[in-house]
Amino acid sequence: MLLNVRDYEREAERVLDPGAFGYFAGGAGDEVTLRDNIEAFSRWQLRPRVLVDAGEVTTATTVLGREVSMPVLVAPIAFQRLAHAEAEVATARAAADRGTVMCQSTLASVTPAELATAAPDAHLWFQLYWSRDRAFTADLLAGVVEAGFEAVVFTIDFPVAGRRERDVRAAFALPTDLSLPNIPDPLARQDFHADLGKIVDATLTWRDLEWLRETCPLPLVLKGILTAEDALLAAEHGAAGVVVSNHGGRQLDGVPAALDALPEVVEAVGEGVEVLLDGGVRRGTDVVKAMALGARAVLVGRPVIWGLAVGGEPGVREVLELLRRELELGLTLLGCRSPAEVTRAHVKAK
Ligand SMILES: Cc1cc2nc3c(=O)[nH]c(=O)nc-3n(C[C@H](O)[C@H](O)[C@H](O)COP(=O)(O)O)c2cc1C
What is the pLDDT of residues 29-73, one digit of tens each? Predict the structure, then answer.
């Protein structure tokens, strides 16, 4: 019986090829941050209020002005064809069906236009790996705008790829027929992380955001912020949102859990910038804790992949719906009728 995200993870491990499962599940180095992303949620306790009329509860909210059915969005995940033949298209259709936003990775097997056409009801964001080839990046962004995407999420914690030892040990290689239309050069099948490091422009600085904002009129979200200092710079450089994220523990091992970095970022940016979080969200009550600590919404990465691997589009739909139901139950028992009613007073450190 698949009742929760953990169940989907176990089932995904059963159905996936071990190399692909390791690619999706793994993190960098000793995977300390990977584990801490999850453990951080258990270091906070909920403080429910009672007798507050919880007769009608909604999980709906808005993110960057877009109405969503819940403050749970789909994180950008590369190479989704390794999980299911329908890959990003299945994920986008499921997110549309469940009323939330999907963020497409640069490392998808379809272009932004192809995804938007295949999932016409989807509300899509595009995650950018910014290549050294400026003209290519400008064309890519023009396609993103043209296809009706609603935001660009620039991943800023990836000047090069972190070292994921599970992939090295398993000699994990991409399939030869995996197309990657949103990067200028093909990736080696075996050493794809090193190749990606050669494509991504590692020389970028805050100043380059000016070019990005001139080139692309969409709201800009910066993904991979872990400090108040960088959060302030993001606000100064016109970001509409930031994602407090350590890339699911896949980049620099030893950084704080995303949840632990959240309070200083929220404090630094104030009201002007929407603060999102990803990393380790596995339960509706995790979403509640992130909101109580100031997140507007969260993104989920691996849970979506487990749903995709287990059941394609319906599998992703089920994972998103189980999280929404858990969130609704959590809000009700906490005494909150909507995400907007969750406050800092609803949690305390253990
Ligand atoms: C297999 C895998 C591939 C990922 N690919 C990308 C990517 O292409 N771009 C990106 O910005 N983040 C990528 N991420 C990071 C996720 O967007 C997100 O930060 C992370 O998965 C959140 O943690 P969670 O998996 O615990 O929910 C990837 C993560 C995983 C697990």
Answer: 999 999 999 999 999 999 999 999 999 999 999 999 999 999 999
1-36 pLDDT, tens digit each: 999 999 999 999 999 999 999 999 999 999 999 999
Of 287, 275, 266, 277, the C-alpha closest to 331 is: 287
As a 3-state breakdown, the chain gives helix, strand, coil percent values, each rounded to 5, of: 45, 15, 40
Q: Among 250, 305, 319, which residue has the most ligand 1 atoms within 8 Å of its CB, making it the best to mutate?
A: 250
Span 219-225, mean pLDDT?
98
175: amino acid identity, one letter: P
Q: At residue 62, what are phi and psi to the nearest 5 degrees? A: -125, 150
The answer to whether the CB of 80 is under 6 A from ligand 1 is no
Q: Give the pair of three-digit tokens for residue 5.
A: 């995200």
Spatial separation of the C-alpha atoms in residues 197 and 190, rounded to whole Å: 14
Reply yes or no on whether the pLDDT at 256 is more than 90.
yes
- Cα angle 38-285-151, degrees, rounded to a multiple of 5: 80
β-partners of residue 74 are 102, 300
**How is residue 54 annotated by DSSP?**
-
Residue 247 catalytic?
Answer: yes
Ranges of H-type helices in the chain: 5-15, 18-25, 32-39, 87-97, 112-118, 134-146, 165-169, 192-199, 209-215, 228-236, 258-269, 284-292, 302-334
Instruction: Please work out whether the CB of residue 200 comes within 6 Å of at least one atom of ligand 1.
Output: no
Report d(CA 4, CA 48) in Å as an integer: 23
CA pair distance 342, 37, nearest whole angstrom: 21
Q: Are strands 66-68 and 123-128 parallel, antiparallel or unpaired?
A: unpaired
Q: For residue range 105-151, what is the model confidence (pLDDT) as tens digits?
A: 999 999 999 999 999 999 999 999 999 999 999 999 999 999 999 99
Ligand 1 proximity of 73 Cβ (cutoff 6 Å): no
Alpha-carbon distance 282 to 279, whole Å?
9
